Amino acid sequence: MVQSGKVYLVGAGVGNQDYLTVRGKQLLTTAQVLIYDALVDQSLLQLVPLSCIQVCVGKRGGQASTPQAEINQLLVNYCLQGKQIVRLKSGDPFIFGRANEEIAALQQANCDFELIPGISSTLAAPLLAGIPLTDKNLSRSYVVLSGHQPEHEDWSALARIDTLVILMGGRSLPQIVQNLLANGRSPAEPIAIIRHCGRPQQQFFWGTLTDIVDKTAKISLSPAVIVIGKVVQLSNQNSSPTSLSLTNKTILVTRAAEQSSKFTSLLQQQGATVVEMPALTITPPSDWTALDQAIANLSQFQWLILTSANGVDYFFERLEYLGYDARALGKTKIAVVGRKTAGVLQAWKLNPDFIPPNYVADSLVEHFPGSLAGQKLLFPRVETGGRDILVQELTSQGAEVVEVAAYQSQCPAQIDQSAWEALQQQQIDVITFASSKTVKNFSQLLQQQLKSLSITDRLLDKVCIASIGPQTSKTCHELLGRVDLEAAEYTLEGLTEAIANYKFN
């Protein structure tokens, strides 16, 4: 007998996990099927189990989208299979979504469902901009409407409402402004546009009905929330005071998507707006054979050398997969490079036997405890593209180094479009690089775009290039022509501190 399925219509809120409800997060972590919208923040997708079936059915204006009837049928089919389904909708499920149609289809098929509210951009966007929707003197009421089809609205009535909140109105902004002016709204009426509400690339645009169209003429306003009314003028006095060093700075993070969250958090704690542009994708190696053989013969090795968090995680995940645990290491000692790598190892309930004083691989050889002569070392590493100097130096000291592929890092197929847009519009103040490989892949992705769009290579002229350490800096000089700052301590914390102390022009 097939277990009864259930569909949870969950509001994703705005932006990342910070604005997701506790109930929504709990359901995502146990979902068997995830059916999600295009505007849902990608960080939410990382909450679901690895076994979860993920289906993007996003709808974006002017782009190909999944027909609503097909979405309805997907929900019904998976539910009848006994699956626990999360239908993840941006904002709140009942605010300009088509949840009613999905519910009707579920009811007709006798499928169980539950509604989970989310924070709507209708409320969140004005708040994040410091705009109160109501005020005893300036706004006794507000109206929320869609700007998708302005020709269907009663603008004579809307023009008399104190405050208007308009979703999906970016493309229709000229018509919206024209309709309000034609129906008696003052040309001096304040207007604010909040773009990418709650996300790292969040932007605010301010103006009046007279000048807002010209101010945003060359800017894509999707997705955006438009607020019109005298309360907009209160935004300055309601803005949160701050003395954080990176306030009003936008920083591009190029780390792999699964590695960027810590660095993003560190920068945001300093007040920065962070735009993530993954320049690495981390995957299993093309062949596990060499690593599996090494694990089966761990007793032969005196040392296990780990130089990255990925190396740690992939090695120990494979160890467990093959039915072993930490006891298999026996008398094998562990050397790690860097405090972060040590921290990841400790998450596996193990402490390193040796950490070099400097967070670079070269320091491991210089400060290695005892003689390397005659030592047999196991080095799980990236499959291609890693530095060979460590192996060369260890070998020159008389050690036998067995290199095995534990993971692969590759260049993404294309540049993240939101990041590319931010670069084009010169919204980026700092580009960060935490490895030579991210520099190489960033350069490759950039050249692909420059070639296709015939844009000059002066795109980075006004951007600070920040490097985590000497080797990364060397690659920056080779491929990007310069480095503007380098971390004194070769860690994410050190890089954050260096950026926070940087003297911007």
**SS field, number of helical segments:** 18
- Shape by Cα distribution: globular
Please give the number of β-strands. Answer: 20
CATH fold label of the largest domain? Rossmann fold
Number of domains: 4
Calculate Rg over CA atoms.
Answer: 27 Å
Low-confidence stretches: none
In round numbers, the mean pLDDT is: 89
The largest pleated sheet is described as: 5 strands, parallel
> DSSP strand (E) fraction?
15-25%
What would you note in describing this structure?
Helix content is 32%, strand content 20%. The protein has 18 helices and 20 strands. Helix 2 packs across helix 3, helix 9 packs parallel to helix 18 and helix 16 runs parallel beside helix 17. It is of the alpha/beta class and 505 residues long. The protein is globular, with a radius of gyration of 27 Å. A five-stranded parallel sheet has the order 3-2-4-1-5, with helices on both faces. Strands 6-7-10-8-9 form a five-stranded mixed sheet, covered by helices on one side. The relative contact order is 0.08. The model has no long low-confidence stretch (mean pLDDT 89). The longest helix is centred in the C-terminal third of the chain and has 18 residues. It folds into four domains: 114 residues, Tetrapyrrole methylase, N-terminal domain (Cobalt-precorrin-4 Transmethylase, domain 1, 3-Layer(aba) Sandwich); 116 residues, Tetrapyrrole methylase, C-terminal domain (Methyltransferase, Cobalt-precorrin-4 Transmethylase, Domain 2), CATH 3.30.950; 120 residues, Rossmann fold (3-Layer(aba) Sandwich); 128 residues, Rossmann fold.
